[in-house]
Amino acid sequence: MTRDPGAGRIVRGTLNYPGVGFTEHGRAPDGFPCLVSRTYLGDGPDTYRRVAQGILTWELQKRSGLRVRTDSDVVCGARVVSGFGVGPFRINAPCEVVWVSRPVPGDGPQRAGFGYGTLPGHPERGEEAFEVEIDAAGRVFLKITAFSRHSNWFYTAGGLVARAAQRHITSRYIEGARQLAAGES
Q1: Does the structure show a pLDDT above 80 at 95?
Q2: What is the number of domains present in the chain?
Q3: What is the CA radius of gyration of the chain?
Q4: CATH classification at residue 58
Q5: What's the pTM value of the predicted model, to 2 decimals?
């Protein structure tokens, strides 16, 4: 992977919210609304591993239409800037990976994915997690867990638009996961 010289310049500061790592257990800190989305993607270990690979290589974010800038794979402490919007209306969203769960050898119920939290400059303060799960029956699900509050008065004033944008990007993540599950390039 090539290093984006702009990523280090944009991604500074420290995590800026309470409850770091809470999404790993599907929770949110007090005072933070929590969104949990669980979507069936298909069946079998091959489907599970394709989606896990896509999640752990930033492919899910890319397939959702985000511009992803990072100098690292998905590992704890990795920093990434996702951008959405067009031209001068692009919003950058810097984050840091706070936990990672990798696939384990063998079949059976398990999950893989990661959670990342917001850094200064992100329009929200909070955390979001992307996981693929396979249950005992071999059914594969995408689970997205997020908790957040607006980072400043500007985004608070546009609260309805911001929540609509969050719902829209969640639907794009689901579509990207469906592509990964189907093995689409």
Answers
A1: yes
A2: 1
A3: 16
A4: 3.30.530.20
A5: 0.86
Q: If pLDDT is split at 50, 70 and 90, which confidence band does 174 have?
A: very high
- Note down the domain range covering 150: 5-182
On whether the CB atoms of residues 167 and 33 are closer than 8 A, the answer is no
CA 170, 171, 175, 178 dihedral sign is: positive
Contact of 54 with 73, CB cutoff 8 Å: no
